[in-house]
């Protein structure tokens, strides 16, 4: 639950799949591949993936990998700027003619649609379809994706989406090209909210139940040609997409093919060998074991690096003993050997130890370490003293939700080994990657702790980092991102105070201060900030990768006839 995340190069494609949302926080990406080459039109781009995407339906999915995929299929009123823009984190108009017009009190936002917009079936996209698609976020079964629409747009408590409750009372459509939103309270970043993956149009009354699990109705440059879950996803051009209405998506390839279910080491082998159509392939972050092989001079031109935009952490369920005691959670933070977790992640090339919640790439980051240890290797003695204070000095056991991927497994084992030094026995509960975020995001299915991660939904503010993870009023029965289930009145109050600050710089300063206040309560243990090393195929160009959100819509091939 990204979740992110973080335009994303499918974290689902690798062991780097984080609970995140979609956008990164730093436009600096060294060694961007193919900077001197403009992609040619045509050919088929290939994505080699370890795991399937969570959902084709954007109302349901909200992890980093699938958010990038959605950008190929769907459009919203606004969107994150292109990955090669001067500021790739900016929010720009997409289906709308311009950004929103806010009323003087900040409670009403108005947008006007461009002319000539169509779905892949040829039906027009008007304000009615826009309102319908957005209102799907309120459906109790379908609307488990990005929470921002529900958090900002005014709606009765019993509104349950368009299928059960009809038209959304907080969204008005006075004419086919105008759509008006009524907000719960002023939210100056509302343009960012409408850039979320679930704020997209669909034909009225479409997509009920599980309709969109294996099929889609696209508004973007591509539509679904073939889908075999766990095996392959093929996209073809949406002939009703008009490039004249889309300043963001270049859509150079004629088709995309996502090959699913490949072991990470096999993906690396194929990219290194570069045979056949693998010259046209991209994937997620390379495996740690592959890094020494990238010293080969023949591969140097293809290596692309990306800084860390996301935080990998271990949540602790504060509703369950002994994690309902702050001393226990603080002890865990003291005992964890973050240097070992860096090594488990692939070493310093791929990760830095994390002692804060907000990463340095996100506005609002402030450097501090409340649980220091020499070399970030943990302080078992200090941890034991806290466990004694909590009455569990003899130790205890807990269950850690994790995934059967080599890197995540290694991180889990590093936690096991570190905590064994303070008498804590960690039992691993391995969950399938494709259902992992849905499982841990359902409080009734949560165990004691989970390894996950978070990327900002937009980078200019830490408002998308701390509130989703720690505002106790946002805990939901499904799609819950507050995995620690922290519901602290003081933290909730501070969130409200900071959200009311209109000066963005001052607000970010206060988000950094709140980071430390939350870490005093220790509902999570930050583990690492994960960086990226990528190896695209030699025929790939226009590739601007991110550990949070790579823009797939500007990637193409140097020579479409190859492969």
UniProtKB/TrEMBL annotation:
The record ties this protein, via InterPro entries, to: Peptide/Ni-bd, SBP_5, SBP_5_CS, SBP_5_dom
Coiled-coil residue spans = none
- Signal peptide position in this chain? 1-27
Q: Which keywords describe this protein according to UniProt?
A: Signal
- Which membrane topology term applies here? Lipid-anchor
* Stretches assigned to the Solute-binding protein family domain: 91-471
| Molecular function as annotated in GO | peptide transmembrane transporter activity
Q: Is the keyword Signal assigned to this protein?
A: yes
Q: Which family does it belong to?
A: Belongs to the bacterial solute-binding protein 5 family.
Q: What is this protein called?
A: Peptide/nickel transport system substrate-binding protein
| Species for this entry | Leucobacter aridicollis
